[in-house]
Design goal:
The chain is built from 11 helices and 13 strands. The protein is of the alpha/beta class and 332 residues long. The chain has a single domain, classed as Spore Coat Polysaccharide Biosynthesis Protein SpsA, Chain A, CATH 3.90.550.10. The strands form 2 sheets. The protein has a 5-stranded mixed beta barrel. It has a two-stranded antiparallel sheet with strand order 7-13. The longest helix has 17 residues.
């Protein structure tokens, strides 16, 4: 393969070596350019130094990002995996991404999730404009992996058929957590009754509003979603047409000598954009949701959630008939 090594992007395949009508994975290893500040002290206590949480081996001998990409490698190979990182994460990211993501975009600066996601999507739009894209965070726990991947595959199938919709994987909201996103659902939208129209999306509500959403049987947004390139692009255009006008000009520059200058300009000139608050909240009519059933899910954004899962796994390990659902993350 040809190595493309620009200032902000490394690729082990040129665009003409990649099929234009297939599945891609877009992994957000640094959604806002930061290092997961809520976990700084926890990481230092456990590992003796500051390491961005997604590169830490919280469970077993693989990091959070390694677990994430190894799971999705079952349905998308490294040659069609693009990972977004921060430029100052290279010392941790590049060794762990080797063999897992052939395309790495190192953001020039922190501009939040919306810019990170849509600039990376511009690259996929240049290479594979008819692709179906699975977007995933890299700091979440899910188990078992097999059942989880069945849901991802189902969401991909819905996205291929309903080419104007973005399909979000969601889980029942259990507590009024103010740091998560909430979905309210309406009617079924396909022959799969579990897939329902999103009627409202609320990002990080205050506790009283979160309690009200729980009373309405809201689901949590896992931030894992599937959509065609066009569906994701038009979702962004409805919510932030100015950003998408700029990115329309970026797409043809990907892979040219002007790519770096264009990326640097966007990150210098554009204000931060939150994907959840500034995109998803503004266009719920373009979203549908598929509930993760028989899958354990946890957003490992704070120490309490990490320790709760680890404690549960330890308790199951001591039981002769341990629940098989905990087997999604292996101790390797």
């Amino acid at each position: 393969m040809t190595l493309v090594n620009a200032s902000f992007r490394t690729s082990l395949a040129t665009p003409d070596e990649v099929s234009s009508e297939t599945d891609w994975t877009l992994a957000l290893a640094s959604r806002n350019g930061g290092d997961g500040v809520q976990l700084h002290d926890y990481v230092v206590r456990r590992f003796g130094r500051k390491i961005p949480k997604q590169y830490c081996c919280m469970l077993g001998r693989r990091s959070m990002i390694e677990h994430t990409l190894d799971r999705l490698a079952e349905i998308t190979p490294a040659s069609r995996t693009l990972c977004v990182t921060a430029s100052h994460h290279a010392e941790w990211a590049m060794p762990q991404l080797a063999g897992r993501a052939d395309h790495v975009f190192r953001q020039p600066a922190a501009r939040d999730t919306g810019i990170a996601l849509y600039v990376a999507l511009s690259m996929i739009r240049r290479w594979a404009p008819n692709a179906t894209v699975t977007i995933t965070p890299t700091d979440h726990y899910v188990a078992p992996a097999t059942r989880y991947l069945e849901h991802v595959a189902a969401a991909q199938g819905v996205a291929r058929r309903m080419r104007d919709k973005v399909v979000i994987l969601a889980v029942p909201a259990l507590t009024p957590a103010p740091d998560l996103g909430y979905l309210l659902l309406g009617n079924a939208v396909t022959e799969i009754p579990e897939v329902r129209q999103v009627t409202n999306f609320v990002e990080k509500p205050c506790t009283p509003i979160a309690e009200d959403l729980l009373a309405q049987d809201a689901l949590w947004n896992t931030m894992v979603m599937c959509g065609t390139v066009d569906a994701l692009w038009e979702l962004g255009r409805v919510a932030d047409p100015h950003l998408l006008d700029i990115l329309d000009s970026l797409v043809p520059l990907i892979g040219t000598p002007d790519e770096d200058d264009a990326l640097e300009y966007i990150y210098r000139a554009y204000l931060p954009v939150s994907f959840s608050r500034d995109i998803l909240e503004r266009a719920p009519e373009r979203l549908c949701a598929l509930e993760l059933r028989d899958v354990e899910w946890s957003n490992w954004g704070n120490p309490e959630r990490i320790e709760a899962v680890l404690a549960l796994r330890r308790s199951h390990a001591l039981m002769p008939c341990a629940d098989t659902r905990i087997s999604g993350w292996h101790h390797t």
